[in-house]
Every structure is written in C-alpha cells, then in structure tokens.
Design goal:
This protein is an alpha/beta fold and 333 residues long. Helices cover 40% and strands 17% of the residues. It has a single domain, classed as Divalent-metal-dependent TIM barrel enzymes (TIM Barrel), CATH 3.20.20.150. The chain is built from 12 helices and 11 strands.
C-alpha cells in the first residue's frame, strides 16, 4: 500500500511542486497529493510534463485535487468560472500528471445552515458530476469526493456517490473530518469503503466538554480514537487505495455543543442515527484532553508564527510517517 502526503500538511513551508516532490522522497513517501495548485508555477503542458518527469525520476505517484464543485456551496470560488469549467480544467491537469483521481469537495458544515436546504447543495453537486461524466470516463479519471469540514456524514456521501454514478465518482475518505460532524471514523469507513478511491488520514483526540465534546486533530499515534484499529480496517477494506497523510495539528480544538438546548449541532445534523452517534459518544467518554506541546493558531496566524508552524508541520508529518511504517507496515519505499 502506497504511503502518501497531502501537501496541505506542510503548507507553511511555501515549497514549489519540485521541492515538495524532493521532500516527499526524502522522508520515505510513495505519493504526493496536490490538493491545490498553489505550488505550480504554471498549468501549461510543458510545465506539467516537467513535474511529472521529476516524479518519475523519484519513483513517486501523483494525485491531484481541488475544492468545491458545488456552485451554491459557501466555499465555491466563483472567480474561477463555473463548476463544470473548473472540473474540466482540473481533469486536464490530472491527466497530464497521470493522477487516477481528481479529489474534490462539496463544501463545509456551513452549507447545513444556509437558506438553501442542504439537499439542494447535494443536487447541485450531482449535477456537476453528471455534466463531466463523459470526460471522466474518456480519461479514466474518477472524481473523489471528500467528506469535508463537517459537510457529510458517511451515509450521506455514499448516497450521493450512488446517485451520481460510482463508475466515475468515488470517495476521498478523511479520517479526521467525521469527528467534526459528531461521527466515529469507524462508522464513516464502513459506509464509504465500497467507494473509496483515495484518502486523507490523521489522528484525533476527543474528550468531554461541558456542552458536548472537544475535538482536536493530532499527529498519528497521538490521539485516542483507536486510529491503529481504524487503519487496519482500512487496509482490510481498501487494500489498493493509497494511505495519504493530511496531518493538521495547528487547528484549535473544535467544540460540538450537542448537550445544549437548541444546539447548533442538532440544527446541522438533525437526523443523526442514534446508534451511530452512540459510537462517537463512546469515543468522547473514553477520551482525555490532548496535552502535548502544540502550536494552535487557527487560519489567520501572525506572520511571526509561520517559522514555528512550518517546523511543527514537518515534525508532525515525519513523526506520522515513521509511525505508519513501524506500527502499520504501510509504505513501499
């Protein structure tokens, strides 16, 4: 099984595509997942060919990603054209870099509180998918929709994939995002396993909070959700899918307020199955606060913090790579 890295893991380094490839080889990875194209100096074919050639020299696979493909989602970037235009453009990039998937997302948990019902966002996402189906099929590239930032529970994303067409739409399963939505990642995996095309993996610490639960993303092996058992189940259910690390440790803990009257949580996820929520609550009740030294600053960190953030990102990635190799035996390098 290939061991990879989503470049968001080391976002504060400011590296270009070639530096990211060289670093990934240095730390023993097999795959680089370019979840955005900021490190690319150009999208011209000759530049993409040079990136692919360097990856070939290093023996690295490449995956390509983008963000929202839903025009009604709060995070959709209208400045880059229509959803279909953006996906079509990115499919070309994926083809040039020989990426078998194009990772994409619908939106975030904010879309569960918009005037437009969440189901309408889903329909808009499916419409985008269907509009590019023939192009995906011609290129042999699968759209890999991620359970992203609390937008989907596992069963909901599985239903979207089935409605759009699993022959060209799959899942990018994220092991950290389910906990933002009050779902055990074990539940998410069972729902999405038949459709998983790629992955974003990180560990998480959860513990009780007066209003519900605190959730904090951590390096592999530092959490308390049973990530080793989750990874073993992933290997069993998805043996041919890359295991790509997206280590995000600078995000402050997220509080889920499901014990509060009129809680925002239940406004966003009113139909959460009790049996599935109980599995999340069990993780919470058995968890302890994360107390290891860690710089958490959110998205708008002062510039003075960036060197420390960059150092923490590489430290936690390399710790996670070593953990995956030693504890799971994952990696071909």
């Amino acid at each position: 099984m290939k061991l990879g890295m989503d470049i968001y893991t080391v976002r504060s380094k400011g590296w270009d595509a070639f530096q990211l490839l060289d670093y990934s080889k240095k730390v023993g990875l097999d795959l680089v997942h370019f979840s955005d194209l900021a490190p690319f100096a150009s999208l011209e074919d000759d530049y993409l060919d040079r990136v692919r050639a360097r990856a070939d020299e290093l023996g690295l696979a490449i995956e390509v990603g983008m963000l929202s493909i839903c025009e009604s989602a709060t995070i959709f970037d209208h400045s880059q054209g229509s959803a279909v235009d953006q996906v079509t453009r990115m499919l070309h990039v994926a083809d040039k870099l020989r990426s078998p998937i194009l990772r994409c997302v619908q939106g975030s948990s904010a879309d569960r509180q918009t005037e437009l019902p969440f189901e309408a966002h889903i329909e808009n996402t499916i419409a985008t998918c269907k509009a590019v189906r023939s192009r995906c099929m011609d290129l042999g590239i699968k759209l890999a929709l991620e359970n992203h930032a609390g937008d989907f529970h596992g069963s909901e994303l599985a239903a979207l994939i089935q409605a759009a067409g699993p022959e060209y739409v799959g899942a990018c399963i994220d092991s950290g995002n389910p906990l933002w939505a009050g779902e055990s990642p074990f539940v998410t995996l069972e729902h999405l396993a038949p459709f998983v095309a790629t992955s974003h993996v990180r560990d998480t610490a959860v513990w009780q909070h007066p209003t519900g639960a605190s959730v904090q993303w951590v390096a592999m092996g530092d959490g308390n959700i049973g990530v080793k058992d989750w990874a073993k189940r992933f290997i069993e259910l998805c043996p041919n899918v890359p295991f790509s690390l997206e280590i995000i440790t600078s995000a402050p803990p997220r509080v889920l307020d499901y014990l509060e009257p009129d809680a925002d949580y239940w406004k966003m996820y009113p139909e959460t199955p009790a049996r599935e929520f109980a599995q999340f609550e069990s993780l919470v009740r058995h968890g302890e606060p994360y107390i290891k030294p860690c710089l958490t600053v959110g998205r708008n960190a002062p510039a003075e913090y960036l060197p420390a953030l960059a150092a923490q990102q590489t430290l936690h990635l390399e710790q996670s790579v070593a953990w995956c190799k030693q504890e799971l035996g994952i990696g071909e390098s």
